[in-house]
Amino acid sequence: MSKNIRTPAVDQLFEAILSLKDSEECYIFFEDICTINELLSLAQRFEVAKMLRNQKTYLEIAEKTGASTATISRVNRSLNYGNDGYDMVFARMKNINTSK
Fold first, then answer.
1. What is the CA 79 to chain-centroid distance, rounded?
2. pLDDT at 1
3. Rounded distance between C-alpha atoms, residue 8 and residue 90, angstroms
4. Pfam families, per this entry (predicted)?
5. Contact at 8 Å (CB) between 71 and 52?
6. Phi and psi of 15, rounded to 5°?
7. Average per-residue pLDDT in the chain?
8. Strands, E, within 1-100: which ranges?
9. Fold of the domain spanning 40-99
10. Which long-range contacts (CB under 8 A, 24 or more apart) does 35-44 make?
11. Domain segments of the chain: what residues?
């Protein structure tokens, strides 16, 4: 049974994140709200997801990112059975990058 993440506190956090205007504001906010290791773990998972979508092997991903096979497997499970959040963001990032 998964925990319900839709709480007023999480709503407030997402509102705060959505209020950030640029990368520099993201760095400022996330350095305050996360430990360095937490932030690096999030970035690592995002990189793992990109590499999985680009058909990289677990071995290639582990070597490049330093992620454990357990982390890679969890990210892969999210990509295959999750809410399509990664793919939504990847599509938007692709549109942003191609429009520049």
1. 11
2. 37
3. 27
4. Trp_repressor
5. no
6. -60, -40
7. 93
8. none
9. Trp Operon Repressor; Chain A (1.10.1270)
10. 44/71
11. 1-33, 40-99
